[in-house]
Design brief:
- This protein is of the alpha/beta class.
- The protein is 20% helix and 47% strand.
- The protein has 2 helices and 9 strands, in the order E-H-E-E-E-E-H-E-E-E-E.
- The strands form 3 sheets. The protein has a 4-stranded mixed beta sheet with strand order 3-2-5-4. A 3-stranded mixed beta sheet has the order 1-6-7. The protein has a two-stranded antiparallel sheet with strand order 8-9.
């Protein structure tokens, strides 16, 4: 099982953590949401939980809870700009379908 980051995403996360001044890394998780069923959650982590799995890539710790890991195994976190929009992108090989607005997915 693995979670990874592109170099661009790692640089962006590093900048966020540096400006924040503290934190172990970022949490990648899923929650029930949207028209397709699941949505990504990305947040800073200050403390680990007992069921957390920690991956490290490009010097960044990516924390995933056991429940979410089933849906996220193999995911690559990227960061990019498209027109006026910029943000993190989730390249998840487990996705079978996405909603039209891109906010949720099915596995």
């Amino acid at each position: 099982m693995a979670i990874s980051l592109t170099e661009v995403a790692a640089q962006r996360v590093r900048r966020f953590l540096d400006s924040r001044g503290h934190g172990l890394g970022v949490r990648l998780a899923v929650k029930t949401s949207g028209c397709s069923g699941l949505a990504y959650v990305l947040e800073f982590v200050d403390d680990l939980s007992d069921d957390d799995q920690v991956f490290e890539d490009r010097g960044i710790k990516i924390i995933v809870d056991q429940k979410s890991l089933v849906y996220l195994d193999g995911t690559e976190l990227d960061y990019g700009k498209e027109g006026l929009n910029e943000g993190f992108k989730f390249n998840n090989p487990n996705v079978k379908d996405e909603c039209g607005c891109g906010e949720s997915f099915q596995v």
